[in-house]
């Protein structure tokens, strides 16, 4: 089976996509658009707590400012975003610091919600596929400087 067919099949299936597709993100995005899926990218690189992770997802899907600050709000966000799409969507999760001891529990909660949302999608005739780029700990802050916050501009 070709790489293109592998990508198409993975997207049709929905849910968490194989880590091997991280190197084919551009092809994956193109294939998603061909299948009528919207493509969203959640940049979690600066998230150091659950609240920041939730903001990264809300920002990715352009969810309203009044977004709640708990894990149930993320599920609502993902389901409402799905309702706005014809076919569903692909969510690319960039640099989630699952190797950071302070975030490990929060990352696991987020992954559970992503799975739950993906399992809900077929019930309404749509697809949610997601690809997670796990990375280790955050780099320690430079001496004399605090860690860069999620909203800080470089």
The geometry reads as globular
| Helix residue percentage | 40-55%
Looking at the structure, the CATH topology is Barnase, Chain D
Low-confidence stretches: none
Tell me the name of the CATH homologous superfamily: Barstar-like
**Number of distinct helices:** 5
The number of E-state strands comes to 4
The CATH top-level class label = Alpha Beta
Spatial sequence of strands, sheet with the most strands: 1-4-3-2
**Main β-sheet, in a few words?**
4 strands, parallel
Radius of gyration: 16 Å
Family: Belongs to the barstar family.
Protein name: Barstar family protein
InterPro entries: Barstar, Barstar-like_sf
Domain Barstar (barnase inhibitor): 38-124
Keywords for this entry:
154 residues; four-stranded parallel β-sheet; 4 strands
